[in-house]
């Protein structure tokens, strides 16, 4: 069993020895200096926060590479979705007529009603995480449930909503609610 001081020393050494290699690995995916730095920093933050659950007797380097790769892929997926939505919005005429405006209002109303129809606990957790931008850990503490249970409720809500809305409508759902969910 490692003490906190031993874990801190190991983590500092791991950071010094691995940061630049992980940064270049992330850069190979993202081709963006700042985003690569952010991804690697976020990964080290996640590892440090989860240090009590990690086995420090084995090398964490392969685990770090896997975390960086997955974070980069998530970044790329998010970027692709944003680009598709931007392209969709560019295709729309500059002057949106009244019927299109009404159509969007009705869709937003449908989204709100769909969220309200979610099971009570799922709805409450989803609203805390998506509408209020609370971290999963904070929402879990508020409801007296684990972070994994919070994640399960969010995934359940997203699955239900994905079944009810088309691709473009689902993107609008994230534009309405997802702004605060970027870094949990």
TrEMBL record:
Q: Which UniProt keywords apply?
A: Sigma factor, Transcription, Transcription regulation
Q: Which Gene3D superfamilies match?
A: 1.10.1740.10, Winged helix-like DNA-binding domain superfamily/Winged helix DNA-binding domain (1.10.10.10)
Where does the RNA polymerase sigma factor 70 region 4 type domain start and stop, copy by copy? 109-159
The RNA polymerase sigma-70 region domain, residue ranges: 14-80
- Tell me which SUPFAM superfamilies the record gives: Sigma2 domain of RNA polymerase sigma factors, Sigma3 and sigma4 domains of RNA polymerase sigma factors
- Give the highest taxon in the source lineage: Bacteria
Q: Which family, according to the similarity comment?
A: Belongs to the sigma-70 factor family. ECF subfamily.
Q: Which NCBIfam families match?
A: Sig70_bacteroi1, sigma70-ECF
- Protein name in the entry: RNA polymerase sigma-70 factor
